[in-house]
Amino acid sequence: MHSVSPGHVLWQIAESLSPEDRASMVVVGSLAAGFHFFGESPEQQLRTKDADCMIATEKAVVIATNIVERLFKENWTLRAEGDFGKPGNANTPDAELPVVRVFPPNERNEWFLELLSCPNEGTVAKGRQFQRLITSQGHFALCAFGYFALLEYEPKETPYGIRLASPEMMALCNLLHHPSIGPAVMKDTIAGRNIKRANKDLGRVLALAYLTTEGNSDALENWPAVWRAALDAKFPDQAASLLLSAGSGIRALMASEADLMEAHWTADNGLLVSKKVSLEAYRLTGMRFIADVIEAIEAP
Q1: Where exactly are the structural domains of the chain?
Q2: What is the value of pTM for the model shown?
């Protein structure tokens, strides 16, 4: 995993896309958070291997196909590593198709772009939704994950014509994905070992909270109102119950020293790599997050 400049990565993506493609895209994940908090600062980079780009339009399949073909013409190359690196064909089931992962020209193995989509509005997908992309290099899946609709709520503009998911929406999405510390694990490329997926994602919530309060010590107090508005807009039938359940995962994380330490380690070597936040400062962020945000959304 390399340290990258969020501004450089966004510029590289924007340079390879048409204005229409850029307008249909919302960048999510580490890259979105990194640019939001660090902008163009060369001193404050982050460690990430992928640039997650969500196509937020009803024409997602058409736009995504156009983007993929354009990137191929711009000499972007497929990331072929892993179990799902090889493109499928007409006989490949949707659930077995790989997602599009492509390296930019001249920066192979430093980072790659990954294409995602937004689920149908008003639905809460517990797993994944698949749409098939048929390209000149084979068949791929355009995947949407549960609660991704929140990531297109009031995205932030950038000078590159590409919008970013807001920190508060990324935090809420991760919380809803992990109401508990589940057993699912993933390979951490820095540690060279498996870590709990929930710890990484919930750990990022606290990293986002830390960076938010670093710029404005009272900023977290604004999150509950934004969360309510977003859930009312995207999932009106489930909004009340989702608010009441959003804090269970982070409470479980704070109650387990081993899980909190693993979450801190992943955040400290990822989004917070340029900050070097101590475990105690990270723990205090969690306590404040529960007090300022979780307890506020649970209040009658």
Answers
A1: 2-152+160-164, 167-298
A2: 0.92
